[in-house]
Design a protein that fits this description.
It is built from 19 helices and 2 strands. It is mostly helical. Strands 1-2 form a two-stranded antiparallel sheet.
């Protein structure tokens, strides 16, 4: 019996210098960071204030840090792919062998969707939603920490595959039969499946947590129609998570059973049906698009309203459009595979529903434009991202509606036109929205603004780089170039791919500018220091100190109308009454917990063991997970009390919180 299952020295790709160089660099960076943190004596602080924290703000920031790191990792894959395709024409084979190229495009899609965009969106929601709701934390604080740990576990497993074994070569969607054991006998698909299963459980926990928080723990007086739009879009996104992620979990579980126990859910020669996988995957997959983009819509609503100095135009229609998208997103999935032969009636229905779902999105765009119309717009970095989004996303939406026409899709399916459309929506919608939110809420999180000059440089590089990188792909798709090609023989495609590669380099300059922006802002933080309300905001998060205390609000706000903070400020200006003396009471906050960190450790152990068939280790990891949950269930102390004197001292020192 082999105690290490399938794991041996052959799992490390010593014969591939690119992979070994990247792996070595990654390990070296991790060792240097850990050494620096240890030598500086920061370990106790990080453990106490961050790793074991259940404060929703700290957890949100950690999600965003993970997402930004994975943005660099996923973008490195994009650089390699575009570089390969720019040179691999005709007799030239490029620098990436086919099996390595296959792993790169699979890892790029998996990382950018599951481990960059999702953590970034969840991080934004974690930080902002409880503050906007006027509450002190999430409904289930420790569950929030566990969800973060499971997401980090999936990220770690995906990156381990770079150095030990391989990653999937079956694309980020892992369609059978390519992902079945017969055609992918290695561990690459197993890394993909276990990383997604583990992180998917964490995402489902997050969805449940947010739905409970938004529906059950709002501030006194905050009815549904007084909630900020970002809270509505977060609610819609998390309802989609709760409804859609179990489908993904079940689908990947069936594929795991096919691979591990010889089941035949998707194997055609065993009377399985590969098209069932495709259907189930996209039953999750298209709602996932809206899980990512709906919170971005909420960010744009907050940013456009704040920097136009006006209430959001058509608040009720915006809410209705958000919930319409939430429902309609479940009846459009088949437009991802019109070519499967479902028949004209089925294709026609899903084509029409795809066109209908564009209507509430159009309502949102017009509402943002009408909000800006007649306003005194301040052209800060967040509003630049918002305007860039409106132009870019509309183009992506129009190409999506074109592909919703089945006859057109028969020509464009599986071509680079589809890749251009998808990136047009995800980058122009989700990424631009997340960057707007990052610049908008950064001063609330850290007490100082990000540098405007470098922020503008980054925005323009991203915007110009996007168009240079992806507009050529529309043309190539119409010319017949399919996606996922490591090499091609049509020489006329190469100039377009060279231009696309230049665009990716311009985006790289934008990412480097963002790194410089952060470094410069930290260096100049005293000059960039802000008060509680640096943007003259409208919603409750701007009524707290920057950064907020662990308890968020010393006294829970009383909400009487929409845009609670803005209306309170207007009343104070007109009535000119002296501020009332505030009485502070002791506040209970959740106690720190190592449950999330320990759960993440055992999840990685179990996942790695299952990938390599190390059964004793998998069992030990499962027992560890069970004992961790048991210890948490029988904990003695759930909360700690903050004395009223400490709360009063914080308020006096900051003189920041605005009573609402």
């Amino acid at each position: 019996m082999n105690l290490l299952g399938k794991l041996n020295w052959n799992a490390i790709p010593f014969d591939q210098p690119i992979i070994m160089g990247a792996s070595g660099g990654m390990v070296l960076v991790i060792v240097l960071i850990l050494s620096w943190v240890t030598l500086k004596g920061y370990v106790p602080y990080l453990w106490r204030e961050w790793i074991t924290s259940v404060d929703h703000k700290r957890i949100g920031i950690m999600y965003i840090i993970l997402a930004l790191i994975m943005l660099l990792r996923g973008f490195a894959d994009a650089l390699m792919m575009r570089g390969q395709q720019a040179v691999a024409a005709g007799g030239a084979q490029g620098y990436l062998p086919p099996e390595h190229f296959d792993q790169i495009f699979s890892a790029h899609g998996t990382i950018m969707i599951f481990f960059m965009a999702m953590p970034f969106v969840i991080g934004m929601m974690n930080f902002v939603v409880p503050l906007q709701l006027g509450v002190r934390d999430m409904a289930f604080p420790t569950l929030n920490s566990v969800a973060l740990g499971l997401t980090a576990s999936g990220i770690l497993l995906t990156n381990i595959s770079l150095a030990v074994g391989e990653f999937s070569k079956a694309g980020w969607v892992a369609y059978p039969p390519l992902s079945e054991l017969q055609f992918s006998p290695g561990v690459g698909v197993d890394y993909y499946l276990w990383a997604l299963q583990i992180s998917g459980v964490g995402t489902l926990m997050t969805g449940i947590n947010f739905v409970a928080t938004i529906l059950k723990t709002r501030a006194p007086g905050m009815s549904y129609m007084r909630m900020p739009v970002f809270c509505w879009t977060s609610l819609a996104a998390n309802l989609l998570i709760v409804a859609a992620f179990p489908v993904l979990t079940a689908t990947l579980a069936m594929l795991l059973l096919d691979r591990y126990l010889g089941f035949h859910f998707f194997t055609t020669d065993g009377q399985g049906n590969a098209m069932m996988y495709v259907n189930l995957f996209w039953v999750w997959g298209h709602p996932e698009v809206y899980i990512l983009v709906l919170p971005a819509f909420g960010i744009f609503s907050e940013v456009v309203s704040t920097f136009s100095g006006k209430p959001l135009f058509g608040y009720r229609s915006m809410v209705a459009a958000t919930m319409a998208i939430c429902v309609l997103s479940f009846v459009v999935w088949l437009h991802h595979f019109f070519t499967m032969g479902a028949g004209a009636n089925v294709n026609g229905f899903f084509g029409v529903m795809t066109m209908i779902i564009a209507v509430p999105t159009g309502v949102k765009v017009f509402n943002w434009l009408f909000t800006m119309y007649g306003g005194r717009i301040r052209f800060t970095v967040p509003i630049l991202w918002s305007i860039g989004f409106m132009v870019t996303f509309v183009i992506g939406g129009m190409t999506g509606v074109l592909m919703a026409v089945p006859p057109a899709d028969f020509q464009l399916h599986n071509s680079l036109f589809l890749i251009a459309h998808f990136h047009n929506v995800i980058i122009g919608g989700t990424v631009f929205g997340l960057m707007a939110g990052y610049n908008y809420w950064f001063p609330k999180a850290f007490g100082f603004k990000l540098d405007e000059r470098w922020g503008r440089v980054s925005f323009w590089c991203w915007l110009v780089g996007f168009y240079v990188a992806f507009m050529p792909l529309y043309a190539l798709g119409l010319m017949g170039m399919t996606r996922r090609m490591q090499h091609y023989d049509v020489a006329s495609w190469q100039p377009w791919l060279v231009v696309a590669a230049v665009g990716v380099v311009i985006i790289l300059v934008g990412i480097v500018s963002q790194v410089i922006q952060l470094v410069v802002s930290i260096r100049d933080r005293e000059q960039l220091k802000v008060t509680a309300d640096p943007w003259n905001g409208r919603t409750l998060e701007w009524a707290t100190a920057s950064p907020p205390a662990a308890w968020n609000f010393a006294v829970l706000p009383q909400v009487t109308d929409l845009d609670a903070l803005w209306n309170k400020k207007q009343r104070e200006r007109t009535q000119a009454q002296p501020p009332k003396e505030r009485k502070f009471e002791p506040i209970e906050v959740p106690k720190n917990s190592a449950t999330g960190f320990i759960t993440a450790f055992f999840a990685v152990v179990s996942g790695f063991a299952m990938i390599w068939h190390i059964w004793w280790m998998a069992g030990a990891g499962a027992i560890g997970l069970f004992l961790t949950m048991l210890a948490f269930a029988f904990r003695d102390e759930e909360e700690i009390e903050i004395p009223a004197e400490q709360v009063a001292r914080f308020e006096q020192a900051n003189q920041a919180e605005i009573a609402v």
